[in-house]
Amino acid sequence: MDFLNILKAVFALSIVLGLILGLAYVLRRYAPQVMARLQAQRGERRLKVVETLVLDPARRLVLVRLDDEERLILLGEGRELIEPRLKPAPRPAPTAAATKPASPPVSQDDDLF
């Protein structure tokens, strides 16, 4: 390779690196405003991360709100565990025997007089 080819390669490399650095500067400078505008156009979001708790390096708990409902999710070790939606169990209807207080049992030892 002669000196002219090496000089062309170095010049081309400096132009490519300059373009990459210039693009990085522009993205750092203007990307947050663009992203904020895009999110404002999207409107109110339904899904929100309320809180995150790191249990250990492999696992974390995430509390997520979807509409008016919160879910607890355990993330880690290549799997997710989502707390099932629990509905309160229906209470049984009170029966006549349950509403009437039971009288205490009478033993024969009570009759001393």
TrEMBL record:
Transmembrane feature ranges: 6-27
GO process terms (BP): bacterial-type flagellum organization
Family of this protein: Belongs to the FliO/MopB family.
Subcellular location: Bacterial flagellum basal body; Cell membrane
Top-level taxon of origin: Bacteria
Any single GO CC term annotated in Swiss-Prot or TrEMBL for this entry: bacterial-type flagellum basal body
Short name of any one Pfam family annotated for the protein: FliO
Organism encoding this protein: Asticcacaulis biprosthecium C19
UniProt-annotated stretches for the region Disordered: 85-113
Protein name (database record): FliO protein
Keyword terms: Bacterial flagellum, Cell membrane, Membrane, Transmembrane, Transmembrane helix
Predominant cellular place of this UniProt entry's protein: other
